[in-house]
Amino acid sequence: MSITQYTHDPRDREFMQLAIEQANQSIPVEKAYCVGAVLVQNDKQLTTGFSRELPGNTHAEECALLKLKELGEARGGTMYTTMEPCSTRLSGNRPCTDRLIEAQIARVVMGVREPPDLVQCTGLQQLKDHGIEVLVRLEEFIQGFNTGKTFRIYSVV
User: Fold this and answer.
1) Of 107, 113, 112, which is closest to residue 142 (Cα–Cα)?
2) Catalytic choice (61, 62, 84, 114)
3) Which of 6, 55, 119, 144 is the most exposed place for a label (fewest CB within 10 A)?
4) Which residues contact 42 (CB under 8 A, 6 or more apart)?
């Protein structure tokens, strides 16, 4: 039985496109991905983030949450992210799944699963185990390429 649920909702498509635009602002580095995120509450964009946007080897979801005045603003919201939220950080930083659970995000829409070449990610399952709805914006709807450790996504088709 698959744990993956897919979404074809037009609003999800719009916000995922914004997340892709964020990902494309991320400066590529070796052994890391270029990821974008958009935090939405009641169909309104609250914040955005992209990999390494803020100091401290930050991830996209982390940046979006750090930009809030109060973490409680995220409660019940949706995080759109171009890649599965991390469950393990090689840097020792706190994983994005822990941050999303603490923020009481209700829903995560992600573009693709994290490839297993750096860490074994269990983000999708961890979020589901905490009652967070996780949907995938069909991977075949996202065009991109992976060269080395740089994952670039251009548009939702």
Assistant:
1) 112
2) 61
3) 55
4) none
